[in-house]
Amino acid sequence: MEARIVIEKLMQAANSVYDEREARNVVAVLMEDLFGFHLGGSSENRMIEVDDSILDHLIKRIENKEPPAYISEISYFYNLVFKVTPDVLIPRPETEELVYLILEQNNSLKQHVLDIGTGSGCIPITLKKLRPNWHVHAIDISEKALAIAKQNAKKHQTQINFLRTDILDSAFAEQQLPKMKIIISNPPYIPLREKELMPESVLDFEPEIAYATPNDNPHVFYKAISQFAGRQLEKNGKLYFEINEFHANDIYEIVENAGFSQIEIMKDLQGKDRMLKAVYL
Ligand SMILES: C[S@@+](CC[C@H](N)C(=O)[O-])C[C@H]1O[C@@H](n2cnc3c(N)ncnc32)[C@H](O)[C@@H]1O
After folding, report:
1. What is the pLDDT of residues 61-72, one digit of tens each?
2. Residue 145: CB within 6 Å of ligand 1?
3. pTM above 0.85, yes or no
4. CA of 221 to the centre of ligand 1 (A)
5. What SS3 class is residue 193?
6. Distance of CA 279 to CAs 65, 66, 255, Å?
7. Which of 142, 152, 221 to mutate to test the pocket of ligand 1 (most atoms within 8 A of CB)?
8. Separation in Å, CA 140 to CA 49, 157, 237
9. Is the CB of 141 under 6 A from ligand 1?
10. Which of 62, 89, 128, 243 gives 136 a disulfide partner, CB atoms 3.0 to 4.6 angstroms apart?
11. Which of 118, 163, 169 to mutate to test the pocket of ligand 1 (most atoms within 8 A of CB)?
């Protein structure tokens, strides 16, 4: 089918659910990720291999407002391509900033590094790619998320020690893992009662297990991970959290109560309190 016709059909679907600018973005991303076609760059007479049934299916997914990353199964993180499906959170730019901070603050010497709640594996795989000497470990409770993370690790030819475990019951992780120099986590942090404030595209498609926490204990993951990190880090080991800007003070207190020092809260590029770093002396 001619690219021009595919674009027209996708545009029509996108215009029915998005404003003009977003519709164009969605179509541009899908044309590029699915067909390697650059809107405005490639000739629209070019032929694209797609049959009617695939195109209809694509149109339905656009009309359902499914995030383009799930439709194409592609997400970019730190200039690397990651497979994503509705079993994993779509990596966010804020998390790239956390990875940037970790790389900037830590040298390339051999050390054990652990990512808790790894999802697509974007954090450990990027770290391993850029710090090949590190021994990188990653855990998640979701078997399905780990399956995607393992595919991503293979695609990027990175050796990561993946472990399925529940961090709220950390005895197994403590038995299985060595002492760490760095522990990182972007854990679930949205109390269920705040769900209505989230965009539909998250609520309808992203896995609830990746973002939701109980109303009566919204910081349960920060508490459990800080305590676990206090036991699992070497002396002078570092803890890095991605945080919600509205709860920075509470999380600071949780980390302090778990025995950490040199606690710093850092802002993301949008000026929001987004990252926390602490040291276990
Ligand atoms: C906010 S997502 C972060 C995903 C990825 N690290 C990222 O930054 O894109 C949180 C992850 O924690 C995992 N998770 C939720 N509950 C967990 C638990 N009890 N133990 C371990 N992992 C858990 C979810 O499956 C999800 O992959």
Report:
1. 999 999 999 999
2. yes
3. yes
4. 10
5. helix
6. 42, 40, 10
7. 142
8. 37, 20, 21
9. yes
10. 128
11. 118
